[in-house]
Design brief:
Strand content of chain A: 15-25%
Number of helices of chain A: 15
Largest interface: A-B, 37 and 37 residues
Distance between the termini of chain A: 52 Å
Oligomer: homodimer
Strand order of the largest sheet of chain A: 4-14-13-12-11-10-6-5
Structural class of chain A: alpha/beta
Shape of chain A: globular
Radius of gyration of chain A: 20 Å
CATH architecture of the largest domain in chain A: Alpha-Beta Barrel
Largest sheet of chain A: 8 strands, parallel
CATH class of the largest domain in chain A: Alpha Beta
CATH topology of the largest domain in chain A: TIM Barrel
Chain lengths: 373, 373
């Protein structure tokens, strides 16, 4: 089996875990944060830069790539690794979330979903079977079951959608052929402990090689999200990786690693970079701020990223104000370095038995609103 | 004197010359093409990438940098080299061309020019003295006299403007203090041989360390541009560098090196990249073209740039169509590599005595319209 999860250490004072996911394209030390490369590119960066940043897993999106340039075309190139020239592990999302958040006029039935492309309005249909086929064509190391994403606080909706998501999970498993890909099941159930427990139980019985937790970070409170993770922790198999989809702010990483999560992805570091915002140990900064106009300091004095080793806040602000593309690159490099470095330190702290201390130190300094200076 | 021009070889069959410009920030092998970094960044690229491309001189623009972030601010950072973290030679244009092409409501008088910023409409005044002062603050290795750019085919206008440009050249020389910068005079005179000759004669008498040729590539024909270079060749001092401003298409490089030009700059390679167009030995390609949708070849099979060593035309087209920033970067890298590599080969061919053969071989294959495939 080219895919396996090796559990290396478990924290004494929380549910934090350190491990390694072995894949056909290399090892992924966990907990891991995966930069998002929706359209076969992690926005603004080259594969060489992602390697330099120490990224060990990146995401692609089946919904976007199916629409453009098309899964058959990518298959003809030997898959997504070859097409985008990233030779490390890749995970593709199944497109469930995108269909329910990006498209219009979608119609769900037992068989699948009919929807209109957000690009040109053309009509398409996804079923568990053709989504798995598309992901086999894309050829990622980790692929996702096709699920129905529900408004997190509508109980009746969640009951109905969850039952369908479970039937689709079985169909995904049955449809999946490639032995060099790990297919993860996706636990749904909104903010409802009973539904989440039911989902974990159902999917665990199907024996997926990994479990994703979907439908969180979509409008519910942090407390609700944490409560769901606490419900799931004892129910999910200890020796399988756990992936919290779409979550990855600095504070989320600490809180959710501490609740047993091994895998994260989030557009936050790349998206805020494109708005001129950057992470620091004290919180987010907006580079447009006039107080940086003559500031000779880097974003963070002790940061080892390319941006901080070379450029002043004043120069970065100038690039943002002048709408220069280099601004997007330099902010993206810093933000991904920041998040990936946090993850490396979290992992080391779990191995060292110092996770609680590191979490406490980080969260004491880090403000979730822009407050520095 | 930290600035000097060393003439190394002269072609037997044309006016092509090979040399070295020595500057405080390093040597510039000539003929040289300088990538344009108008706003203290060569669009989309880092200084590290410019070094990897072999760029030996880049441009900044006094007009843009004076307006934003301001010459005083850059001076406070130790100059443009420090501010943008490029440690190689820099040339700043004086802003004359920009004032006459970008700004509105400009009024020229004997003393200087009053104009409105293209950014916010604010009113500003440039004089030979304050433009030199601004360029001393920016601290480039090569700086330019402040000139008046004229419509190339209006004789009366050119007569008046040229006389003023000459008086301004004298004032620039008188105002210039920094001994670590070379101030070039700018030959003007439109498409008129008598005015160009008069300008060369006047400026040569002032003994500038280098001579720029301005006001070409602004609407006149190639034949008119070549005729002006042929007029100037015998009149400009043999042991001073000659800089043809704003010119740098592949075909222009061959034609104008053959007419004695040592220095070029042009936004073409970076600008067309942002529109999805790339250079090849057969001419320009537009990456948007549907014929590239499934093309596994690189832009050029034998090109050694990062883009061509890794990515297919199909992937590049996908990035362009999906409006991904990486498309701009990869096209810019290729186009600058293409132009800088041509320049390296031109220089070597001058040293080898094979310039005519290389020029003929290149221009036989290169189509100035997009015609390949």
């Amino acid at each position: 089996m080219p895919f396996s999860f090796e559990l290396i250490a478990e924290d004494q004072h929380s549910q934090a875990r350190a491990g390694i996911i072995h894949t056909p394209h290399g090892d992924i030390p966990t907990p891991v944060f995966a930069p998002v490369g929706t359209q076969a590119t992690v926005k603004t960066l080259t594969p060489a830069e992602l390697h330099d940043l120490g990224a060990s897993l990146i995401l692609g999106n089946t919904y976007h790539l199916y629409l453009r340039p098309g899964a058959d075309l990518i298959a003809d190139f030997g898959g997504l690794h070859q097409f985008m020239q990233w030779d490390g592990p890749i995970l593709t999302d199944s497109g469930g979330f995108q269909i329910f958040s990006l498209t219009s006029l979608r119609e769900v039935d037992e068989e699948g979903v009919t929807f209109r492309s957000h690009i040109d309005g053309s009509s398409h249909r996804f079923t568990p079977e053709n989504v798995i086929a598309a992901q086999e064509k894309l050829g990622a190391d980790i692929i996702m079951a096709f699920d129905e994403c529900s408004p997190p606080e509508d109980y009746e909706y969640n009951v109905t959608a969850l039952a369908r998501t479970h039937r689709w999970a079985e169909r995904c498993l049955a449809a999946h052929r490639r032995s060099d890909q790990a297919l993860y099941g996706i636990v749904q159930g909104g903010v409802f402990a009973d539904l989440r427990a039911q989902s974990a139980e159902f999917l665990t019985a199907l024996d997926f090689p990994g479990y994703a937790i979907g439908g969180l970070s979509v409008g519910e409170t942090k407390a609700q999200m944490h409560a769901m993770l606490e419900v799931l922790h004892p129910l999910l198999p200890r020796h399988k990786p756990r992936y919290l989809m779409g979550v990855g702010s600095p504070e989320d990483l600490f809180e959710c690693v501490g609740r047993g999560i091994d895998q994260f992805d989030c557009v936050l570091p790349t998206r805020i970079a494109r708005n001129g915002a950057v992470f620091t140990a004290q919180g987010r900064l907006n580079l447009r701020n006039a107080r940086f106009a003559a500031d000779k300091n880097p974003i963070e004095p002790d940061c080892r990223c390319y941006t901080c080793r070379h450029f002043s806040l004043a120069y970065l602000r100038h690039l943002v104000i002048a709408k220069e593309t280099l601004a997007l690159r330099l902010a993206t490099l810093h933000n991904l370095h920041f998040i990936l470095e946090i993850m490396r330190r979290i992992r080391q702290s779990i191995l060292d038995g110092t996770f609680a201390a590191y979490k406490s130190a980080f969260l004491t300094t880090y403000k979730t609103v822009d407050s520095r200076r």
